[in-house]
Design the sequence.
């Protein structure tokens, strides 16, 4: 019986053993002759500091972008949430809300501090953000209908009793031209204005709306004429009129109507017509004419 030798290899096996031996020799040579000592890289401290500064700068810019912007605002309308975000304490916010609940208005930064009792440091931060309405920062002189007959600087033209005056709504151009200072042009302007409205004038106040009539001439006209048959007007209740109703009144557009309703809501209703003068962009010069179309119940 023949014994099989374990050392007899085929050609492919001998080639594999030979290749393995070569690889062992190569790796042994690498291990003994290669230098595996860590290479120390010299760092540039200034360059690293520059990189750190750039990174910090980018982080700051990103943080600033994430901070919510605060735009100018009217301090009268600060809510609980807004007051909290501005750094006010609950007590300071409550003082402001209690003050506004009495329908009182803050018109300056100093008054804001007196009402809320915020600190000087917080006021210094908030004051540049305060934006008060134009009628507070740039108050206008109230203009209303003048009783020319009571003006001491106007000549007394010999006042007539009402029953002797002619009706302004039926006067002819010839009648009007009898007034000193009224010629063909002005008499034509008066009649054209009257004819714009079915029924004519509501009140003599509307004479101030006619181009070319000076206060002195108006005084002479009202001495000889009166509106005896006024045009009927369905007056709107100022406290219930809608925006679409308000814009039917002379000199009130949608913007003014919006501000009127806004003020009406804030005040829980108007108590007098004079409060209209506090409405933003209200045409103060036409106040008396606008009142002809309104009522307060």
Sequence:
């Amino acid at each position: 019986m023949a014994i099989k030798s374990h050392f007899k290899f085929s050609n492919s096996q001998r080639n594999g053993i030979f290749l393995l031996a070569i690889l062992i020799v190569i790796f042994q040579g690498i291990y003994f002759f290669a230098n595996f000592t860590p290479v120390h890289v010299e760092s540039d401290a200034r360059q690293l500091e520059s990189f750190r500064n750039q990174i910090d700068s980018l982080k700051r810019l990103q943080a600033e972008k994430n901070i919510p912007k605060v735009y100018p605002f009217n301090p009268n309308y600060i809510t609980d949430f807004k007051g909290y975000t501005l750094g006010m304490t609950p007590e300071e916010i409550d003082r402001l809300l209690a003050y506004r609940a009495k329908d009182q208005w803050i018109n300056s930064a100093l008054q804001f501090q007196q009402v809320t009792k915020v600190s000087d440091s917080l006021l210094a931060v908030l004051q540049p953000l305060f934006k008060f309405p134009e009628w507070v920062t740039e108050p206008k002189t109230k203009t209303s209908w003048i009783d020319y007959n009571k003006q001491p600087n106007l000549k007394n033209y010999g006042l007539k009793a009402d029953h002797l005056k002619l009706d302004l709504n039926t006067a002819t151009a010839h009648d009007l031209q009898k007034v000193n200072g009224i010629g063909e042009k002005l008499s034509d302007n008066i009649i054209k204005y009257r004819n714009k409205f079915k029924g004519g004038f509501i009140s003599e106040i509307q004479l101030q709306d006619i181009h070319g009539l000076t206060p002195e001439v108006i005084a002479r006209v009202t001495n000889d004429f009166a509106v005896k048959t006024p045009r009927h007007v369905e007056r709107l209740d100022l406290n219930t009129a809608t925006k679409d109703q308000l814009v039917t009144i002379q000199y009130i557009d949608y913007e003014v109507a919006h501000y009127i309703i806004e003020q009406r809501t804030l005040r829980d209703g108007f108590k007098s017509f004079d409060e209209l003068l506090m409405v933003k962009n209200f045409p103060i010069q036409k106040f008396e004419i606008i009142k002809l179309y309104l009522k307060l119940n």
About this structure: The longest strand covers residues 166-167.
